[in-house]
Amino acid sequence: MTTTRITPPNPEMWSGRTDGDTPEHLRWHQKARPETSDQDGAAGGPAVELIGFSCDEGVRRNKGRVGASEGPDALRAALAPLALHADVGIHDAGTVVVPDRNLEDGQDTLGNEVAKLLDTGNPVIVLGGGHDTAWGSYLGRTRSERLRDKRVGVLNLDAHFDLRQADEPSSGTPFLQMARADQEAGRTFDYTVLGISEPNNTGVLFRTADELGVEFLTDEQCQPRHLDAVLEVVDRLMERVDAIHLSIDLDVLPAAVAPGVSAPAGYGVPLETIQAVCHRVARSGKLVLVDVVELLPRMDVDGRTARAAARLITTLAHDALSTTPTPPTGRAGNTTGERHE
After folding, report:
1. Are 141 and 306 in contact (CB under 8 A)?
2. CB contact at 8 A, 200 and 160
3. pLDDT in tens for each of the 341 residues of the chain?
4. Minimal CA–CA distance to 129: which of 97, 93, 102?
5. CA dihedral 36, 40, 46, 47 (to 10 degrees)
6. How far is residue 100's CA from residue 237's CA, in Å, rounded to a whole number?
7. Where would you tag: which of 209, 212, 227, 239 has the fewest CB atoms within 10 A of its CB?
8. Residue 18 contacts by C-beta under 8 Å, 6 or more apart in sequence?
9. Distance (Å, whole) CA 25 – CA 198
10. Measured between alpha carbons, how far is 51 from 125 in angstroms, rounded to an integer?
11. Nearest alpha carbon to residue 124 among 244, 249, 235
């Protein structure tokens, strides 16, 4: 059996147009640099810590469309040309590659690396991978010295609960795994989901969510006309916890926006709502960990899904590294979190 390995970032993914080297010209590819998780990233100033998780096994076990193993580099390539509007570093710790079906070993390795990156003090963004990536992220935050004794809330933007009861872990089980692990460790499992598709979640999943005290909104309840109510749910979670683990399954978006996912949404939550939620969470000062999952580049159309994901990632990175977190009420009654300066 081939063992899990960590590959350095491919410099070809971090390339693009260069207009100049002064701050007003910078793009992501000009600031991205390889870095191992053993380095003290915080010493060089604020930065975003990136790490990829290349694995198809979780989706395969969940009987979904495979291809998410190609997601990390596609996300890097989509981020590379975007403008960087802050004096921050982009640290890329490479990709945890699971070459065979040993999902559990890959998740354990990812957990160790995420823990080291979290302990730099910088926000960590994990580039998946199927949604089984989230369990590796969870292992990392529970092993992090920085988050020891902190109450961490999970906000999942997803068409699915991913609370499936199964004989083995998969992309459909990570949050039930978290619930059970928290219970065993005496921690509070605080889980909120936005974007649930009622036709794509069985009655047993809704019952499991109810038993676990999960707060959720359906995709219909997350339309832009309900944005105030959506942000109220987000604010309630943030008030209860010390830190936020944000998990973004790209299948929460409508299929027209995100065709390149394992399970394209027949309805979905508009990008406008998801962007507003990202602003809200990142500007709270409590966002410590993000995973972006379920991108299937081979099924994408004109890079739509990757571009939408990159837009969300750059929003989160810029806002989370802001020196002045915005209060939950936003600026001058602006509930979306958009800047009007």
Report:
1. no
2. yes
3. 668 999 999 999 999 999 999 999 999 999 999 975 445 444 578 999 999 999 999 999 999 999 999 999 999 999 999 999 999 999 999 999 998 889 999 999 999 999 999 999 999 999 999 999 999 999 999 999 999 999 999 999 999 999 999 999 999 999 999 999 999 999 999 999 999 999 999 999 999 999 999 999 999 999 999 999 999 999 999 999 999 999 999 999 999 999 999 999 999 999 999 999 999 999 999 999 999 999 999 999 999 999 999 999 999 999 999 854 455 544 333 444 444 33
4. 97
5. 10
6. 37
7. 239
8. 25, 27, 30
9. 45
10. 7
11. 244
CB atoms within 10 A of CB 151: 12
Measured torsion, CA atoms of residues 329, 330, 331, 335, in degrees rounded to the nearest 10 = -100
Write out the two tokens for 95.
């990709």
Tell me whether the omega of the peptide bond preceding residue 89 falls within 30 degrees of 0, making it cis. no
Taking 3-state DSSP, the helix, strand and coil percentages for the chain, each rounded to the nearest 5, stand at 40, 20, 40
Distance separating alpha carbons of residues 81 and 279, to the nearest angstrom: 21
User: How far is 287 from 299, CA to CA, in rounded Å?
Assistant: 30
- Token look-up 């999960």 returns 214
Q: Are 310 and 78 in contact (CB under 8 A)?
A: yes
